[in-house]
Amino acid sequence: MEGREGEMWWDEIADEILKRKRGAERQVVATGITPSGAIHIGNLRETLIADAVCNALRERGAEAELIYVADTFDPLRRLYPFLRKEFEEHVGKPLSEIPDPEGCHASYAEHFLLPFLEAVERLGIEMKVFKADEMYKKGMYVEAIKQALSHRKRIIDIIKEVTGRELPPNWSPFNAICAECGRMNTTTVLKYDLKGERVRYKCECGCEGFADFRGGGKLTWRVDWAARWKILSVTVEPFGKDHASAGGSYDTGKRISEEIYEYEAPFPIPFEHVLLRVEGKVEAMSSSRGTNIPVGEMLDVVPPEVLKFLLLRKRPMRHIEFDPALLVNLVDEYEREVAPIGKGIAAQIPFRHFVTLVQVARNDFNELLKVIKRSGYALTGEEEEIEEIRRKAEYASNWLRKFAPETAKFEVQHALPAVSLTEGQKNALKMLASEIRAGKVQTAEEYHNKIYDVASAVGIPAKDVFKAVYLALLGKDSGPRAGWLLASLSKEFLVKRFEEAASA
Length: 504
Description:
The protein contains 21 helices and 13 strands. The protein is α/β, with parallel strands linked by helices. A hairpin with a 2-residue loop joins strand 11 (274-278) and strand 12. It is elongated and about 95 Å long. It starts with 8 loop residues before the first helix and ends with a helix. The model has no long low-confidence stretch (mean pLDDT 94).
């Protein structure tokens, strides 16, 4: 996270922004997304970058506001893999005008946007939200549409100069929505009436009609982005590296903004993708493909501070590779380098240990409290302490249920598993049982060290004793850290099980 000595990368960016000639003026930091699918942690990186920079600007005495623009008026581009076949009829319609695919929200756009906004609130981020469909319908884009249509030929030239792409002579910067079929990807603008604030169009469905500048259509993406900067007075905006490439959306938008709208383009903060690793395969997260982890789902597994740590610890132009199966390692890193999760006893117990404890307790919370006491932690029974334990235990349980690999899961067997042990392993378990009965081991560290002592005494490798312990207790030859596992189980149970295994 660090930049220059004592500074974070967002401090460096804030300093650079304030060097601009408008540095003393109000700063509007913008972020946003098209809610075409679940808004995931890859999308969240943009919002967190914007929030971090906005806070850094405020710390430097600048008046700064964070805004979020949801592109709810964008069309549904295709039938995404997670949609039912019947949604094919909605391809080309604005997301705000399409029904919720699951019938639980007012529209398709709301279905994916609202859970994200709820998650942002859980993250403690305050931002003003603009919905594109409402902006268009309220007339906030009317003047921008007029300017775009008035300078249509110049915009065509800019796009060609920046991208090298030839546009057809009848290209329009304004896409009309057909009053008959509701699509905007099948219409052609025939003429426009600036005074009447409408265009005449024809649609592939056979319909001809007029589309009003107030909600009857929208500007194409590159023109819309530039227009939005002026409408909302945006001065800073992070965006994906694909938009920042030479000849990309930002280069085009900058020219349109400054030459058509006479507005200085925002300070750009390009960032790299968050890559998702699942079962050895790595790919960029995508809402439309459904290859992602929604923000709300991630917040069920880790607290907000850990998710922020994951997405902010690297500079924006460094990619992040995330493997949810290895999330325990990330939380370990956070607790080791930043702060423990939770308060009181919850803070004293590492997250990785909680993963062990909830499995020993079989997700029974009352049993979990007993297991924690057996592990050597002195519980007071106070309500706040109990709730902190419950919260951290829920994170551990949710990770086990949603993302944990099978190698991280275990179940303490009620009866001795059918296992085959060598004589050396049996002797080791018999000696370990004797040591436990004599009260010579109490803590996790003492259990761990005792395994090495026993291995040395019976003359076999320590790894063989660890394997024997796991086989006797779990029925598998590996498991969580043995010291923690043994300390969480009752001594009576351990003595009985190890003696049974030694005599089997």
